[in-house]
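Bit of a strange request maybe. I'm writing a small parser for structure token strings and I need a real example to test against, not something I typed by hand. Could someone generate the tokens for this chain?
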Amino acid sequence: MFSLRKRVGQKEDAMTKKGKGNKCDEIVVIFVEGDADELIINRLLEYYKANGWKRPKGIRVENIHGTPIWRNMRIRLFSIQQSQNTPVIFRAVCCEFDTDVFRNCIQIEPDWEHVKKELKKEFGVTEFCCLRAETSIEDWMLDDTRGILQALGFPKNTRIKGDSGIGKMENLFLMKGMSYFKNKGKDKVKPVIDKLDIAKIREARKQELKEFEKLLGLTINN
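Reply from user aminoacidic:
Good idea to test on real output. This should exercise your parser:
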């Protein structure tokens, strides 16, 4: 399914071979906006690994519990720098977010070109991409409706009510006497996401994932 090009963080280890004592940690940061997003992205990384991708040690999935904006990303990147015992090179950054908040004019979409320039200016980031979850990560989850229903213990012909992906997930959880919280509630949503067919979701969303997979060094063959 995938072919591999030179992976992020494998550019001849130029930053680690300048001399003894100058070793740097190369880090790829994936910013996500909520718990469900974090779990889905980690499931995708596991899926890629199972299909031949060798995950670099420096990949970090950072949950900032909201739409990634420059101020929050900047604070988190500084925090990562300060937490490392060796100098840090931020090789690449990806911002994952739902598109519904922008389409519904709930928030103004960040100027991603400005973000890209600031990342390069302040942190030396050479690769950047946005991962737009259309229209929400819950819609991605619903690409495997059968898996969701099975995980929640519903019959496969259960009618899912709701005007949006989030609305449908909220209604399903309510039917089980639980509340669905998009950004906080990992303990409740993890058992569901763990049972989803991530290959099915990836297939349905491969165009949205194209730039993300390219950043990771994966080339889509189908």
